[in-house]
Structure prediction request, 331 residues.
Amino acid sequence: MTWTQTTIKVAAGWLAGIMLAVIAGIVTISVVNSGPDGAQEPVRAYLDALHDGDGGKALGLLRSPVPAGNPSLLDGAALKASVADLKDVTIGDPVRQADGRRSIPVSYTLKGVPGNTDFLVEPAGTEWLFFTRWQLVQTPLASMTVNVVNSNQASINGVPVNTPQGHGEFQAFFPGVYEASYTSPYFAAPAQNVTLQNSSAHQTVNLSTAATKSLVDAVSTQVNHYLDACAVKANQEQRLQPDCPFYHAGLERVQQGTVKWSIANYPKVEIQPYNGHWMVSPLGGKAKLEAQAQDLFTGLIAPLDQVHPFSFNVTLSFTKDKVTVTPIVDY
Prediction:
């Protein structure tokens, strides 16, 4: 084959074009590899998994070992609720680290409060021979402790969880807000929120369980009924020292048929935790005695009108839908 000057010029043009294409390709690959999108992708995928309540995917992206503890917060409704108020999310540009890794800053608001979380990613091979694939550096989960007074259960983000002997340890994804509370017909604790922003975060929630108003009212009603019944029986039996918390002792001779007991002040019920149980604080009230009494020295008969303070204790027992009050009285 004879190479003419024209042929040589055409070949040179083709060669130059090929070289320019190769250079452009190298530049493009370099730009793509050094750009933010690739390094940001695993962070974006992780945040999407949290919003979807897909704990398995989120755990895989973190490359975190499956936790041995309580998994209640790591999937489904509890997980979705943790990021329900995650807004204004901005995934920042990668920051090159000395070891070739990249730090990805993420800013956001959680329940309206600004927050920041840094994720660390590292190269994980290439795709299509040229493009760097990134993955999150293996990262542990955040955690929280829930302590509940006199309860083996609580609720976190609306999901019931067990708290054996009033104590529970939970691992959780981040960033997220976790609301712990306890509610039952008899006892309740106000909800408390904690925010977990990074893997090293650990928060403790102490739920101060207290008797509900409905329980206090139910106990008060039973106590008052007991005292009223005691007074009625004392009147029927015309006794000054009935089998009740109240009694009368005096030097006068009370006329039979005139004894009339009534409750002047009913006790105020206060229910407190004690040694893993619920106790009613000692109850105190006042009973009024009305009668006709004869003075032993003068023989005169006059009205007797006295108010006697009294005190006693009660115990409580519970079933699923009922509380029973048992008085303890030293006669």
Residues 148 and 166 are 5 Å apart (CA to CA).
